[in-house]
Amino acid sequence: MINIEIDGQQVSVPKGGTVMDGAKELGIYIPHFCYHKKLSIAANCRMCLVQVEKAPKPLPACATPVMEGMKVFTRSDQAITAQKGVMEFLLINHPLDCPICDQGGECQLQDLAVGYGAGQSRYTEAKRVVVNKNFGPLISTDMTRCIHCTRCVRFGQEIAGIMELGMAGRGEHAEILSFVGNSVDSELSGNMIDLCPVGALVSKPFRYSARTWELSRRKSISPHCGLGSNLVVQVKHNRVMRVLPRENEAINECWLSDKDRFSYEGLNSEDRLTKPMIKRDSQWQECDWQDALEFAVHGIKTVKEKYGAGKIGALTSPHSTIEELYLLQKLIRALGSENIDHRLRQSDFRLDSQLQGIPWLGTSIAAISELKSVLIVGSTLRKDHPLIAQRIRQAVKRGLQLNIVNPIGDDLLTDVTNEVIVAPNALVTTMAEILKAVTVIKNLQVADELKEVISAVKVTDIAHKIATSLLQENPAAIYLGNMAQHHPDYTDILVLVQHIAEAAEAQFGMLGEAANSLGAYLAGAVPGQVESAGLNAAQMLGNDLKRTSAPCQGYILMNMEPEYDSHNSQQALKVLKDAEFVISMSSYKGTASTYADVILPIAPFTETSGTYINTEGRVQSFNGVVSPLGETRPAWKVLRVLGNLLEFNGFDYEASEQVRAEIIPEEKDINGRLNNKLKSFVISVTDQSNTNLQRIGEVPIYQSDPIVRRAESLQVTSDAATPRAWMCSALLDKLNISAGDKVKVKQDQGEARLYAACDDRLPPDCVRVVSAHSDTIALGAMFGEILVEKL
Amino acid sequence: MTQFTQTLLAGVDSSDAENWQLKNYARRSGYSAIRKILSNKISPDSVIEEVKKSALRGRGGAGFPTGLKWSFMPKQYEGDKYIVCNSDEGEPGTFKDRDIMRHNPHILIEGMIIAAYAMGVKVGYNYIHGEIWDTYERMEEAVEEARAAGYLGNNILGSNFSFNLYNHHGYGAYICGEETALLESIEGKKGQPRFKPPFPANYGLYGKPTTINNTETFASVPWIILNGGEQYLKLGKPNNGGTKLFSVSGHVNKPGNYEIPMGTPFATLLEMAGGMRGGKKLKACIPGGSSMPVLPGEIMMQTDMDYDSIAKAGSMLGSGAVIIMDETTCMVKALERLSYFYFEESCGQCTPCREGTGWLYRIVNRIEHGKGLMEDLDLLDNIADNIQGRTICALGDAAAMPVRAMIQHFRNEFIYHIEHKKCMV
């Protein structure tokens, strides 16, 4: 530690620290623009100039390393003169039209100008004007306001991993640009808006819609990926106007993904339901809650009487709160059914009987930053978990070895140590190769249940490298991404991962797909296993075609749009349309009228209190930030009333906190229930002789849940581009198709017409066609055989 | 005409088109300094010691003691280290490095080989200004000759010392002459100065320890090794060793490069340059390149040409570009030209220089065009004050110093311009 004195106060700063670090430690504010704790030091704004004893000139606090005995004066004449001088320079070419600037009221330059600016400008020449740029649908520009701090540039280079903005030109002609005509496409781009200290980069969806001082700031939790990013939701006139990050170093740090930040637009969508609706004599009609609930209860009772309780099923999105999930399972179980599931996109449920606890990340999120080796299996990491990808990117800079086993070769914008890109049906084999490599290197005995699969594979060079990385670099971890969890061989992959992790003394776990992927287990939104086995999502939706018994006749859907949220959208729709009675609890109209019999408008996360348990097992409760739209009701209240109407005991809650207390009496208890290990499972050797084309059907970043699907601005980003049928050039040649040709893609009974595109990072004989998109929902399962024909 | 000992251009006949070639350089005892080091097995430390004794100071403008700079390079560093020659001669008035490279390129190459040997460096770059393409081509030919003759490459002259040298040309941005901007430019990035610390000796080219010297500095080294540091020091005066090239331009009869010992009176240099054109009176002189403070003629005539003397007179020796202005020169117009240059060449990275240089230029331009106000003079001075010492690199100072000196020494002329809306001269 180095001891220095700032404004007469003593402070110790670690070696290599700066004067700015010392000042922050003491709570002394030194004005600054370019400095940001998460970005590299640029020292270009010069606002933080301070006086340092024995230095002939003022020095920038952000870039001046501390030295023993250094005496710093942040408010001396020399320091203040320098700071005021810089402020004058910053203002001479900056428009002084704060009243019409969208940043007004939350502008660092405006704030500091109050303290360091003069009342009147000495600059009488013409001001510089800079042409605005089009950076895409999320970031609006007012480049004349730019003060060239380069925070946005450094954010791209250092945090997002891609330099989409740069400073071109010299002197007064220097300006922030994207590469010729490009938009800013990073999935983290919105953070540049937060970083911009002036009104040069502002939010395009929010622009000119409210003043910062008109907004109420309310805490919330992101309902999207399993990270559970902390939010500040800003509200005006009972409408969500904007979402900003709430700093939480252990989760989202000071960042938000664009999905977390901009999906609020979906909350104000025109597709929102505002009144309950029932279908009476094939006619849809709006009605009051009493009628709707009675109609629903009558329908469910009828199904139960006619077919038995075992023919009633509940399907819910893992984006629901634990209170909603818990009450739904309580209701279904009170009806006498064990058919409930939240794992709508999962296709392999063989692990259910082997689970020893609730699947989770296996480490804390913050622990990812400390890893020295990581293996990620089956994940579109940047799109599914943008901030975990960011955390890994930073860890790689500190020496983390990143190993990938994936069906797609998308650029992670970081250094990858080892990478295996294989067809989905070769994932198991690849993992077996890695396990074999681990056992060979460590000279271990293979567990009996794995002997067959291990003897069937050879240790490849890359498998050996990955095994070595996991064995030699500690701490190490293996994470299964969304694609692995949706994979038809999920159980086999998980077993292999478990054994690799045990042999390598590494942690392992799942990157939680949704805000409550973990919480839903805890709330019991999974089928019963022990006495009366319930149906899982695949069975309820008829994906399990080998089953002889028909799926359910009565369904309760919560926050779920079957054509987008299930593993096999066509199959799901067909089953629901065939069912006798379907209750859809949803915030949106969607297409529920084509399969449901009663539609109950429920509140999205901003309109209800509730709890998400993120992928690391962190319980995060939140309150509603606005009152429910129209006659919308929080789902936990709807379920409570349904329970009452069905005359079940234990549905007399007055607050969501009571529900939570029933689920988690003490938050401590959760950790003991988290366990990724399976009891025992025999892996069968997969048949790889199948040479038919295979689909890689991941969920696109902005199609993952009902809210984000309705976020208008996100829907015009490049990440929401029209799906194409991606194939490697060898396959294109084989099929006699050129990139850009229109092709017919067929799966099961369904087909879609798409343009073919070339991606030579894809494995051979694979066609990447995203799922959960209106252009592709006519197709079948996310993985499996697919046909492509030239049109 | 006074004749002085030459170290840089000794024996060079610029009228001979082949004089630059290796065979002719060898005839002038070229490459014997490196031969002496390698055959006598003179240790790298002894080489640095000799350079320290010579009191050779950086010829690029800052005048930092060269031997001391070389000793900053971490000796035990494992991995690549670099030396870089700053031939990005962009300071208005300066044209000395160009002539060294054009007429005596091998002396630079030999100097760099010796420097590389002294600092344990295997690779060097010579960054040449982008607007002197023929000089770049000349250097390319010279490096090729040296390579063919075994002075560059692996196991130089049969020793176990290896050194490779590469020429690299810029595209004419003045800021790339700032050493860390130059490094950025070699790395293929936009030429923008880096914040220091860390200094290049620790974190230089590609993040490796790097020493950057001016062309003339490197070119001075062979003579020092051959004749001894003390001899070199004796040529000049204490703390200001050796000879130096002065680029004399402006209102003289014979503008050009003159190699004279440090400490030679300015009057002698002026006489060598043929005296004032048309016998006019010396009004002012910028003794060290356009970024240095201007001095009135009468002060200049009392001054000797060395770092310490010129500093004492109130300016700096800088790059040794002596810009002579006679009594017909309008100092407002002169300052306008200078300010425009710095406005145009500011890299735009840091606030005071990006915003301040344009402001300075616009005010001077206004005064020159009869639209100045009396309070502009104090404003100019204050803006210059707010730039100087507040920027990442020295370009801010370079833009500010001429303004302050001009107003200090020729305030009357500026007042006349403001009051009469026309030139005094």
Tell me about this structure:
The complex is a heterodimer of chains A (791) and B (425). With 791 residues, chain A is an alpha/beta fold. Chain A has a seven-stranded mixed sheet with strand order 14-13-24-23-22-15-16, covered by helices on one side. In chain A, strands 2-1-5-3-4 form a five-stranded mixed sheet, with helices on both faces. In chain A, helix 7 packs across helix 20 (635-645) and helix 8 (322-334) packs parallel to helix 20 (635-645). The mean pLDDT of chain A is 95. By secondary structure, chain B is α/β, with parallel strands linked by helices. Helices cover 44% and strands 13% of the residues of chain B. Chain B has helices spanning 22-27, 32-39, 44-54, 66-71, 96-103, 105-119, 133-148, 179-186, 215-227, 229-235, 266-272, 297-300, 307-313, 331-345, 351-368, 375-387, 395-420; strands at 82-87, 123-128, 164-169, 210-214, 243-250, 256-261, 264-265, 282-286, 295-296, 304-305, 321-326. In chain B, the strands form three sheets. Chain B has a five-stranded mixed sheet with strand order 6-5-11-8-9, sandwiched between helices. A four-stranded parallel sheet of chain B has the order 3-2-1-4, with helices on both faces. The two termini of chain B are 33 Å apart. The interface between A and B is medium-sized, with 37 and 31 residues.
**Number of alpha- plus pi-helical segments of chain A:** 24
Q: Alpha-carbon distance between the termini of chain B?
A: 33 Å
- Rounded mean pLDDT score of chain B: 94
Amino- and carboxy-terminal Cα gap of chain A? 70 Å
Question: Keywords for this structure?
Answer:
A: 791 residues, alpha/beta, 7-stranded mixed β-sheet, 33 strands, 19% strand, B: 425 residues, 5-stranded mixed β-sheet, 17 helices, 44% helix, globular
Topology:
The complex is a heterodimer of chains A (about 800) and B (about 425).
Chain A: E1 2-6, E2 9-13, H1 19-26, E3 49-52, E4 59-60, E5 71-73, H2 77-92, H3 108-116, E6 139-141, H4 151-160, E7 165-168, E8 175-178, H5 191-195, E9 201-203, E10 216-221, E11 230-236, E12 239-245, H6 258-262, E13 277-280, E14 283-286, H7 289-307, E15 312-316, H8 322-334, E16 340-341, E17 373-377, H9 381-384, H10 386-397, E18 401-406, E19 418-421, H11 427-442, H12 448-455, H13 461-472, E20 476-480, H14 482-486, H15 490-504, E21 507-510, H16 517-522, H17 537-540, E22 554-558, H18 562-565, H19 569-578, E23 581-586, E24 598-601, E25 610-613, E26 619-622, H20 635-645, H21 656-663, H22 669-673, E27 694-696, H23 706-709, E28 724-727, H24 729-734, E29 742-747, E30 750-758, E31 766-768, E32 783-785, E33 787-790
Parallel strand pairs in A: 1-5, 15-16, 15-22, 17-18, 17-20, 18-19, 20-21, 22-23, 23-24, 27-31, 28-30
Antiparallel strand pairs in A: 1-2, 3-4, 3-5, 6-9, 7-8, 10-11, 11-12, 13-14, 13-24, 25-26, 27-32, 29-30, 29-33
Helix pairs in contact in A: 7-20, 8-20, 8-21, 11-13, 11-15, 13-15
Chain B: H1 22-27, H2 32-39, H3 44-54, H4 66-71, E1 82-87, H5 96-103, H6 105-119, E2 123-128, H7 133-148, E3 164-169, H8 179-186, E4 210-214, H9 215-227, H10 229-235, E5 243-250, E6 256-261, E7 264-265, H11 266-272, E8 282-286, E9 295-296, H12 297-300, E10 304-305, H13 307-313, E11 321-326, H14 331-345, H15 351-368, H16 375-387, H17 395-420
Parallel strand pairs in B: 1-2, 1-4, 2-3, 5-11
Antiparallel strand pairs in B: 5-6, 7-10, 8-9, 8-11
Helix pairs in contact in B: 2-9, 3-6, 3-10, 5-6, 6-9, 9-10, 14-15, 14-17, 15-16, 15-17, 16-17
